């Protein structure tokens, strides 16, 4: 089982293939935002990788990050990442202090929209 380490929270074993956004909420018990329900539309589920950043991303993630001009090193959409290896992240988009009433809509167990995998631009 992959190990997810969340800065300031702890380390957790998560089910192979689980969506990172779900692991952050369900396994790590964080208040990670996901306003669009994990559809790669809103960017509220952003995290910053400190270790183990996946080398691939979905085309939806790439396009959404580009459209929102988000290019900080290691910043990715947790709704578009599967937990298939050990990774460490820093939470940068949380319910606390956001002014939102809740974390977001329910998230499907599989990556949405249907993933088209691309190499992450370096």
Automatic annotation (TrEMBL):
SUPFAM superfamilies on file: 2Fe-2S ferredoxin-like
Keyword 4Fe-4S: no
This protein's record includes keyword Flavoprotein: yes
Coiled-coil portions: none
Domain 2Fe-2S ferredoxin-type: 2-95
Pfam family, one: Fer2
Keywords: FAD, Flavoprotein
Ranges for region Disordered: 96-122
PROSITE patterns membership: 2FE2S_FER_2 (PS51085)
Highest taxon of the lineage: Bacteria
Protein name as annotated: Na(+)-translocating NADH-quinone reductase subunit F
